[in-house]
Design brief:
By secondary structure, this protein is of the alpha/beta class. It has 26 helices and 21 strands. Among the domains are: about 100 residues, Nucleic acid-binding proteins (OB fold (Dihydrolipoamide Acetyltransferase, E2P)), CATH 2.40.50; about 190 residues, P-loop containing nucleotide triphosphate hydrolases (Rossmann fold); about 160 residues, P-loop containing nucleotide triphosphate hydrolases (Rossmann fold, 3-Layer(aba) Sandwich). About 40% of the residues lie in helices and about 20% in strands. A seven-stranded parallel beta sheet has the order 11-12-10-13-14-9-15, with helices on both faces. Strands 16-21-20-17-19-18 form a six-stranded parallel beta sheet, sandwiched between helices. Strands 2-3-4-6-5 form a five-stranded mixed barrel. The protein binds adenosine-5'-diphosphate and magnesium ion. Magnesium ion binds next to helix 13.
């Protein structure tokens, strides 16, 4: 079947008029025949069984019943109306209900004609009912392409209210298969089909929409999932390859004075094996003629900063400038202080640029960046303002990548003739296979080891009722000279309430820990950044012992003397957030603690999150659990990645298929990078079409 046929607008399918076409476009994004074919069922149901009304049980099961409508009436209720049809068979009667779309239904339902209805059963005060049932006249039902396993397609309220039921979609699908004669072009090379024993494309499509049996359905699904993941990987890998061969970067040939002096004289500690390995990987990238695009993953506290600095020193050794961009002001300041300290004896010019940098400083910084006298700039989004121009930016380090969108990232690139090398650092570990899909066009380095001497943070879960005991423990720690974080949730939707919780908490803590014996800092999002900084500074110098805060301290803050992290309403935090917060302690040599406070009422998921935190401190393990609980859509870093745009594959469940698809994609690119062998013609055609009609950025950004 040629591609033009599949690109036919959906309006031209028999059974689709202008109204339906509009709905299909708006509600399901179906514009063409191809889009419809790629609308895959969410699940399948057993339609071989028919119930009589007498047989019905008081369950919530989905049932299929044959009967007739004897009358329809409209009933007013508190809000709006509902439509009730009395539905009977030889054994009894029940009700069919509609809350929306009355008009269409009333005009189209036929009284006293045999219908097959299908839907989820309700039971209320002696009467069975089905709300918004799927309905089909019995003769139509018998004529339609039957299969024991009936696909259930994605739908929306609006669609079912306007009469586009699952049945209708099913019929349209039948129509399309009839018109196409089930002749869909193969998109995978023959050898691949053979070696993986995959179903041909047309058989796979047919069996996913009209499964003959479970085995064929599974094989059909497998084939289509494989194909989907294969083409995504092919595009990602190809892009990466293109980067390496086509996108020129500045080769940093030398490792010179700055790097060597720092390494020999000023390194404050021995690098871990993992840090050394990663620095080597980066050095290799920087030395090549291609632009580096590298993701540096490392758990909180694994020591990414020093890696960033040493990469920056290589840039400086080659007479280039470098920048570090961080998501928050606090974090930028922290980076600045750290790096400033570390470079202290190297005579390097380095500045901080954030939203609160005053005008005259800002002007000077802009000038010095442009004339090249400023070597390192550290800051927030302020760095990507149009006014900021570098003389020769050679390396951009981006911390905590999940806070920046792809577009923002690339803004830095456009500052130069060549794009600078880019090092993206993230402390949110992502399982490797997911990272491949999300950041497939980046190379990945992992620091999988913590600096020596770190003690694992002891983590416990305590109920609010035991608060006094917890306070007593905090006092003991403080009396040993330690410092304590107490963190409250801050969630956008309930900001006002959260703010009140924070203030109430602050008050009760002030009562429990009175001045002058105790000094308390408070930091939250509503404060001016100057005040925040001031409080952070006090805490960091040890002038205050307790830091009460919202999650603004989530990322990056490094105060080794803080040994206890108390997280209030811990059930309201996501796993990766909890893990990030816990990472704020355990940075010194002494034993540290993380105390998760909750009430007694906990959801199953919340319980799992808390148990996971208590059980392990391995960021990758935590990320896996998080992924299973929430799906990739909520995982930090994947929000903009669109891995959810997958049509049939599931990035988590189909992990194994993903790995295989990636390895085959990579093999193919090695053996035939431009798909010019006759055997790879299907790939060439499919790939061209894919990049023409559906750009990879639909998946990635
Ligand atoms: P993160 O990866 O979370 O950004 P940092 O770079 O802030 O971690 O490092 C965390 C702490 O560990 C810092 O205090 C840093 O000085 C220290 N550190 C980093 N690498 C080492 C090492 N190899 N040996 C000892 N301490 C280290
Ligand atoms: Mg950090």
């Amino acid at each position: 079947m040629n591609n033009n046929f599949l690109q036919t607008p959906i309006d031209y399918l028999k059974g689709v008029g202008p109204n339906r076409a509009d709905l299909l476009k708006k509600e399901l994004g179906i514009h063409t025949f191809q889009d419809l074919i790629h609308l895959f069922p969410n699940r399948y149901i057993d339609r071989t069984k028919y119930y009589t009304i007498k047989e019905l049980q008081q369950t919530n099961a989905e049932v299929q019943i044959i009967g007739r409508i004897t009358q329809i009436k409209t009933v007013r209720q508190q809000r709006g109306k509902r439509l009730i049809a009395n539905f009977e068979d030889e054994t009894g009667s029940m009700e069919l209900l509609w809350f929306r779309g009355h008009k269409w239904i009333q005009n189209n339902l036929k009284i006293n004609e045999p219908y097959v209805v299908f839907g989820r059963l309700n039971y209320f005060k002696g009467t069975f009912s089905i709300a918004h049932p799927e309905m089909e006249l019995k003769p139509d039902h018998e004529k339609s392409l039957q299969s024991g396993m009936q696909p259930v397609y994605p739908s929306t309220e609006n669609l079912s209210a306007k009469g586009i039921s699952n049945r209708v979609i099913n019929k349209l699908m039948q129509q399309l298969f009839l018109e196409s004669k089930n002749d869909f072009a193969e998109t995978l090379p023959k050898s691949l089909l053979e070696s993986l024993k995959l179903l041909p494309k047309n058989e796979a499509l047919f069996n996913v929409h009209f499964p003959k049996d479970q085995t064929l359905l599974s094989r059909g699904q497998y084939r289509l999932k494989f194909e989907e993941l294969f083409y995504i990987q092919l595009q990602l890998l190809r892009k990466n390859l293109l980067h390496k061969t086509k996108i020129k970067g500045y080769p940093f040939k030398r490792v010179g004075h700055y790097f060597n002096t720092f390494f020999k004289r000023h390194l404050p500690f021995e690098l871990t094996r993992a840090q050394k390995k990663v620095i080597k990987e980066i050095r290799n990238d920087l030395g090549s003629k291609a632009q580096m695009n590298r993701l540096l993953q490392g758990d909180v506290g694994s020591g990414k900063t020093i890696v960033a600095l040493m990469s920056i020193l290589i840039a400086l050794d080659n007479s280039f400038q470098a920048c570090i961009m961080a998501p928050t002001e606090i974090l930028s300041v922290q980076h600045y202080n750290n790096i400033y300290e570390l470079c202290n004896k190297l005579n390097i010019s380095i500045s901080l640029l954030t939203g609160s940098t005053n005008t005259s400083n800002r002007k000077e910084i802009h000038e010095n960046l442009e004339n090249g006298s400023l070597q390192i700039i550290i800051g927030t989004h302020a760095l990507i303002e149009d006014k900021v121009k570098f003389k020769n930016l050679g390396l951009a380090v981006i911390d905590e990548q999940h806070r920046f969108g792809v577009a923002q990232r690339s803004k830095l690139w456009h500052k130069n003739k060549f794009p600078p090398h880019v090092l993206v650092m993230t402390a949110t570990p992502i399982p490797r296979t997911l990272a491949m899909s999300v950041y497939g066009d980046l190379d990945i380095s992992i620091i999988d080891e913590l600096p020596p001497g770190r003690k694992e943070v002891k983590t416990v879960h305590r109920f609010d009722a035991n608060r006094l005991k917890v306070f007593r423990f905090l006092k003991e720690e403080i009396s040993k000279g330690k410092q304590v974080y107490i963190v409250y949730p801050l969630i956008q939707e309930s900001e006002a309430l959260d703010y009140k919780d924070l203030m109430d908490g602050y008050e009760s803590i002030s009562r429990e820990f009175p001045v002058p014996q105790y000094q308390i800092s408070i930091v939250h999002g509503k404060m001016k950044s100057k005040d925040k900084e001031f409080e952070m500074e006090r805490f960091s110098k040890g002038e205050t012992q307790i830091m009460v805060a919202t999650t603004v301290i989530e990322v990056g803050v490094d105060i080794p003397n803080a040994s206890v992290m108390v997280i209030e309403s811990a059930e309201r935090f996501g796993l990766s957030q909890l893990h990030q917060l816990r990472g704020r302690v355990g940075r010194g040599a002494d034993q540290s603690y993380c105390i998760l406070m909750t009430g007694h009422k906990l959801s199953v998921d919340a319980r799992t999150r808390l148990e996971t935190m208590v059980r392990t401190s391995d960021g990758f393990e935590i990320a896996e659990v998080d992924l299973k609980l929430r799906g990739p859509g909520d995982l930090m870093g994947t929000q903009q990645s669109g891995v959810l745009n997958l049509r049939i594959a599931d990035i988590i469940k189909d992990n194994e298929i993903l790995k295989i698809a990636r390895s085959y994609a990579s093999q193919l690119l090695k053996s035939d990078p431009s798909f010019s062998l006759p055997e790879n013609l299907p790939v060439k055609t499919a790939y061209t079409q894919l990049t023409k009609y559906k750009n990879i950025w639909n998946y990635i950004s």
